[in-house]
Amino acid sequence: MAIRLSGMTSGLDTDSIVKAMVSSYTTRKEKYQKAQTKLEWTQDAWKALNTKVYSLYSNISNLRFSTAYNLKKTSVSDTTKATVKAGSGAPSGTQSLKIKQMAKAGYMTGAEIKADSEKTTLAQLGYTGGDAKLEVKMGDETKSITLSASSTMNDVVKELRNAGLDANYDSSYKRFYISSKKTGVANDFTITGSNIDGASALYSLGIAYGGEKTTAGTYSSNPYDEYAALHGVSDDETRAKIEAAVTNYNNLTTDAAKMNAQSKNLMNAVNYGYSYATLQGIYEKLDANNAGDSDKLKLLEKLGSSRDGALISKNGDSYDTYTKTTLTDTNGNTLYKYIDSDNNSHYIAAVADKDKDTTSYYDVTESTRTAYTDADGKELEAVPTVVDDTTLKVGDKTYKKDEADGKYYLQKEDGTADKTDSITVSQKTEYTIAADAVNKTGIESASVAYDTIIKSMDEKTKSSYDEALASVQAFENSKDEVLGSDDKYSVASLTKAIQNAYAGNGKEAVEQLLAGNGNETDGFVNKANALEEAAEANTKKAADSNIVKELASKQKDSSEYTQALNDLLDRVNTAYTLQNKALFNSQVKKVAGQDSEIELNGVKYTGDSNSYSINGLTIEALAETGDSAISITTSTDTQGVYDKVKDFLTEYNNIINEMTKLYNADSAGSYEPLTDDEKDQMSDKEIEKWETKIKDSLLRRDSTLGSVMTAMQTAMMSSVEIGGKKYSLSSFGISTLGFLNAAENEQNAYHIDGDEDDANTSGKTDKLMAAINDDPDTVMQFMQQLSTNLYSAIGDKMKSTDLSSAFTIYNDKQMKTEYTNYTKTIKEWEKKISDREDYYYNKFTQMESAMTKLNSTQSLISSYFS
CA 30, CA 45: separation in Å to the nearest integer? Predict the structure, then answer.
């Protein structure tokens, strides 16, 4: 930068002069700055609008499917007994519910003791022992507690709570109150002593529970009996009894697991069977329209998500599948691989013609040659001369093979190897299109072929197809973790049975296989229930010997098994001692944890809570009904369907109104973004008003905006054929108000006749609600197709292009490039301005220097005459 001397000698306002002289450059720079600012505002406007459009696009995605409208409402004849909510999958109609038993938490009320406060110690209650070992058992979990003579009632409460129980000591009534935190048998609890002192401490605390006291003076539920029953006359006999119990436990649990797996498979096979029959019917319908489509569709289904990278080709009555690889032929064309029945690989090359937007496919030949690569990994242009098995020559250079790594290293004059210069010899496979190769016809993109077949289905068939295919694939792809493939109730066996039944006599044979002939032993459902009951019985028996569960989980000959066996032996011996020596509080009361039990339509269900989710119903049991039944009535939630349609229209209207307003905005005329100097001359309010004028007009008559609006409006005005009859929004009393009646920029919005919230149409007959009440299926099918049309229309506008990103309705990529170009151009003009300023300041500096010298000379001359 030149030295800038501003009129020190001449007295001129150099800065102002230079500024005026470069003003044309500054004007050009400001022009680009204003354009960039305007572009930035335009980007912001599009981003805000795009967010709303994408939100609409996302929300209507679900509206394309029947589940979005399959809304249900339910009522219960006695709301004091149960509350019920219906999901979309709940069947319409009336169902019978009996609440046979409510789930309860285990609860203990301790005997009265002499502890006057929470600070009373065990010693003050008369306990004289040492460390009192206790065990709190809840389900499969056991936690240990240790108390001492100095432990207070507060300490006891704290330890019980730490063990997972709700516990409290009430000094007014001098009792402990203890309960499990969750309901159900599995969450019940027991508190026992694991040594004599522990049993004694429980008695002192008033919570030693042994059941009801009998007339013989014994207790009905001595908690030590279960372990003591395994006691023998010697340790060896006790070990033998324990191991016999382990064997019995393993047999029961193994059989229960097998029967549960069989029952689960049978129940899943019921859904599979019906879905399989539905799917076969769709295949047959496809073939009736176009022979062979079902075979193609089945192949495409198997490809699944890999369809996007695959091609298919008709080969007689079947199809060959070509999978995209990372390989290329010698010309760089992508290769696709097909593996034949003999496990041989075949390749075709995809040659793209960008000018014609087509791709041709050719068979390629596979050849192998020896490749020589230098130390940098580059293949040598000239093939080396092979002297012998260990020597290569390249020109006058000799390379010798190093047996350690197989590479050939350059030989120095002293006979040593130059490790920086080497040659690697390898076999390289190359793929080449033969000169006489003919373009293979009939090659299809797997994903395009799949979409073509799917689009040929009507919406109802497509919905059935999607659901049936998902069910079929889920069952056929499921794995048996317990059963072998040869088990008659394995996934493989049941799949084969159902497929054979359909092959024999179609859907009727499958239904008979699943439902049976009325005989209780027939049908998958009855067999599944019988197996489930048998498994439940085995599980109950196994639960009676849960004391060996941990031991049974260990490898028999392991050190862990030996240690666990010895631990259990000690426990059995202790229990045997406590069986007769432990004292129990006769006043303590214990309510056992209890599972709930309900009957829905005569089928029994049990659980550890009072909540059930069954076939789309969420049931909350509140009180027992005994043998009396209450009714659950489920029906289509017509108001919910109406609200779904209204919410959709409201969101659409908000967006189309905003688009219309932006498109019809007033012109900003000559308004341009302000420079900093211009802003300095205006107030903040004036600046805001000025910029708002510009921002409001940015998308005025924008062709891209107009295109999106047209696409959306066309989709909304489209008609849908259902059952041979065409329907549009107006068929259900939904229409726009027209240009003459609508408010400004709201002429494209839709209104529902009879909508009480709409002042424009509230007085008209409500055709939409009437249609939902009379024929909800037609309304739902129409809305599904309309939503699909709108979804597709917006989706087409949001596809990625060279100018725009995916899920974007405007040319964001183009705008980003333009913004970057403006930044570059502005910097170039700033450089030009700076260079011109330096040039002018340099001139003025020279002038100032000359004038200074002149003044100095004049002064000197004047001095001669003075």
Answer: 22
By the 10 Å C-beta count (0-12 exposed, 13-18 middle, 19+ buried), 754 is classed as middle
Distance CA 294, CA 170 (A): 74
Q: Is 275 helix (H, G, I), strand (E, B) or coil?
A: helix
Give the full edge-to-edge strand order of the sheet including 175-180: 165-170, 175-180, 107-109, 589-591
Give pLDDT, residue 542: 84
Other Cβ atoms closer than 10 A to 660: 20
- The residues that bridge with 577 in the sheet, in sequence order, are none
Pairing status of strand 141-147 against strand 310-315: unpaired
Asked if residues 417 and 410 have their Cβ atoms less than 8 Å apart, the reply is yes
Low-confidence ranges of the chain (pLDDT < 50): none
Sheet strands side by side (includes 603-607): 72-76, 630-636, 93-101, 596-600, 603-607
Token pair recorded at residue 509: 């044979």
- As a whole number of angstroms, the distance between CA 602 and CA 617 comes to 16
Strand partners, 298: none
**Position 32, amino acid:** Y
- CB < 8 Å & 24+ apart, contacts of 246-251: 246/548, 246/551, 246/552, 248/545, 249/542, 249/545, 249/548, 249/549, 249/552, 250/552
HEC per residue, 326-372: EEECCCCCEEEEEECCCCCEEEEEEEEECCCCEEEEEEEEEEEEEEE
CB 636 within 8 A of CB 674: no
At residue 11, the pLDDT reads 62
- pLDDT score at 10: 62
| Size (the chain), residues | 866
* Residue position matching structure tokens 């350059």: 410
Tell which phi-psi region holds residue 356, choosing left (phi > 0), alpha (psi between -120 and 50) or beta: alpha
- Please report the pLDDT score of residue 319 as a whole number: 84
